[in-house]
């Protein structure tokens, strides 16, 4: 299904993608209270594709891919209030775009509790480390597949009064090497808004060809 030049507004979530579906959002504006575009990890082998082209996407949790599918973002702006982009599996390519997290805590979470996900197993949904870009997985019995993210000419930014609390980018990988995190970005990318910067929390993470 393709949404071309549309305005989407939801008091809940906008798009859930599953079961061999391809969603393309082109030249459109999407705003949602909860999830903007998300997958459901109830089963891994869903063969989903998400394309966001020339669009804006704003929600509490704007973009989640947590299955071995494909995410393609180009010439778009993604703005979140709880996370920016969560890539907990699959292959994501984001180019000529902007990811902004302004953590305003719309769900009333305890910020200190959210920070504990940097030192404990992650839960489901948005129970993961808060960052503008969160990659990989930290559990032992779920989401056991690799995560690959490539950024090209993309700005990743933390804004607002809570920006300093969180990393701009955070990655954690499964313990099996072939189910780890591969992260590549070019020299045109920027990562700003917090001195915490880019944090790689485990082994089995490769960044621009180098093991972390």
SSE topology sketch:
Layout: E1 2-4, E2 7-10, E3 15-17, E4 22-26, E5 29-39, E6 49-53, E7 56-65, E8 70-74, E9 77-80, E10 85-87, E11 90-95, E12 98-102, H1 111-115, E13 133-136, E14 147-152, E15 155-159, E16 169-172, E17 181-185, E18 190-192, E19 198-200, E20 205-207, E21 210-211
Parallel strand pairs: 1-4, 2-5, 3-5, 4-6, 5-7, 6-8, 7-9, 7-10, 8-11, 9-12, 10-13, 11-14, 12-15, 13-16, 14-17, 15-18, 16-19, 17-20
Antiparallel strand pairs: 20-21
Quickly give the structural class. mainly beta
Fraction in beta strands? over 45%
Shape designation: globular
User: What does the radius of gyration come to?
Assistant: 15 Å
> What is the average per-residue confidence, as pLDDT, rounded to a whole number?
96
Q: Can you count the beta strands?
A: 21
Spatial separation of the terminal alpha carbons: 39 Å
Helical region count? Answer: 1
Order of helices and strands: EEEEEEEEEEEEHEEEEEEEEE
- Helix content, binned percent: under 10%
Low-confidence stretches: none
Profile the largest sheet: 12 strands, parallel
What does it look like?
The chain is mostly beta strands. It has one helix spanning 111-115, and strands at 2-4, 7-10, 15-17, 22-26, 29-39, 49-53, 56-65, 70-74, 77-80, 85-87, 90-95, 98-102, 133-136, 147-152, 155-159, 169-172, 181-185, 190-192, 198-200, 205-207, 210-211. 2% of the residues lie in helices and 47% in strands. Strands 2, 3, 5, 7, 9, 10, 12, 13, 15, 16, 18 and 19 form a twelve-stranded parallel β-sheet that branches. Strands 1-4-6-8-11-14-17-20-21 form a nine-stranded mixed β-sheet, with no helix packed on it. The mean pLDDT is 96.
């Amino acid at each position: 299904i393709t949404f071309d030049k549309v305005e989407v507004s939801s008091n809940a979530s906008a798009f859930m993608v599953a079961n061999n579906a391809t969603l393309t959002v082109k030249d459109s504006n999407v705003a949602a209270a909860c999830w903007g575009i998300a997958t459901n990890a109830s089963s891994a082998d869903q063969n989903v594709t998400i394309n966001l082209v020339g669009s804006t996407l704003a929600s509490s949790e704007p973009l989640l891919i947590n299955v071995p599918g494909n995410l393609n973002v180009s010439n778009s702006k993604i703005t979140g209030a709880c996370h920016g982009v969560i890539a907990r599996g699959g292959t994501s390519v984001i180019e000529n775009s902007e990811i902004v997290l302004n953590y305003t805590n719309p769900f009333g979470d305890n910020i200190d509790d959210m920070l504990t996900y940097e030192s404990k197993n992650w839960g489901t949904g948005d129970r993961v480390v808060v960052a503008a870009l969160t990659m990989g997985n930290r559990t032992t019995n779920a989401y056991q597949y690799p995560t690959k993210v490539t950024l090209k000419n993309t700005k990743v930014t933390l804004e607002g009064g809570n920006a300093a609390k969180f990393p701009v980018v955070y990655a954690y990988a499964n313990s099996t090497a072939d189910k780890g995190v591969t992260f590549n970005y070019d020299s045109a990318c920027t990562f700003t808004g917090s001195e915490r910067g880019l944090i790689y929390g485990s082994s089995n993470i490769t960044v621009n060809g180098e093991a972390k």
